[in-house]
Amino acid sequence: MTGVFIGTDAFAAGVLTAMVGTSEAPSLVITRPDSAKGRGRQLSPPPVAVAAAELGIDFIQPEDIGDASVLAAIDAIDPPALALCAYGAIIKEPLLSARPILNLHPSLLPRWRGAAPIERALMAGDDETGVSIIQLVEALDAGPMAAQESLTVTPVEDFASLSARLIELGARMLGASLAAAREGSLSFVDQPTEGLTYAERIEAQDRLLGTSGNAEDAARVVRALFPHIGARLELPSGDFVGVREASAEQDGPSQGVFEEQDGDLLVGFSSGALRVTRLTPSGGREMTSSDWLRGRPELGPS
């Protein structure tokens, strides 16, 4: 273990874990400082810090990754290249040019540059995605590629299942690129100039399932945001429920009408209907739609 891994979120933690036991497992992990989370706003370590601690890998959490002490820690290991995945902060000079930084990005670049490539691919209904290993440059996800591999997105894929497959693929590819850097055989090709799209960060409005749209689009949003963010649906009462599992159907009630059908919540959209099978009431726990519908006679069987 003579490498350096830079990352922060749960996806990066999965990649780090997958690399342990390989020839390119890191000896030092750099991640973000603890941050306030949850309703209590208590300080919590990022997923990569938790994973590094569990795996017994030394890690640091600098306020500024460009600090001289961080550069000294990297120089002490002297890797031919640095591994990076979902760090969540801009890396500037002098670290940016000190040595190659191999960035694992879970999309087929230049499609879905940006913060939410897995979610946006699922929301768009892409039937193919993959992993690109690129050299980090100043421009967002625009660096030349050391490797790129694709995989098929299944019709019922959600974020959990797709990210797990991308982690496995990405860890293998990142390890191979790091090995090539160590052997002096690493090479790059420019990204294609066509097909550029941006994966904007998921905002509150992206979570809301408006019935004026297409039920199939809504079902894709549910899968894209499960389980980490969650889609939301506004009830006729004005309350919201989190939609955890749902599928689209061609026929159903009129737009904006909510009713029970075969124990599920069926919601009419402008095109088609959304069959909700699992949900989370506001302030409650996740449950089946059948359990939630009990005691709601206004949503009786159709």
From TrEMBL:
Keywords: Protein biosynthesis, Transferase
Pfam annotation, one family: Formyl_trans_C
Domain Formyl transferase N-terminal: 27-174
CDD domains for the chain: FMT_core_Met-tRNA-FMT_N (cd08646)
Family stated for the protein in its record: Belongs to the Fmt family.
Name of the protein in question: methionyl-tRNA formyltransferase
Positions of the Formyl transferase C-terminal domain: 202-296
Biased composition (Basic and acidic residues): 293-302
Spans annotated as Disordered: 279-302
Gene3D superfamilies linked: 3.40.50.12230
GO cellular component: cytosol
Organism (species): freshwater metagenome
Gene Ontology molecular functions: methionyl-tRNA formyltransferase activity
Source organism phylogeny: unclassified sequences, metagenomes, ecological metagenomes
EC assignment: 2.1.2.9
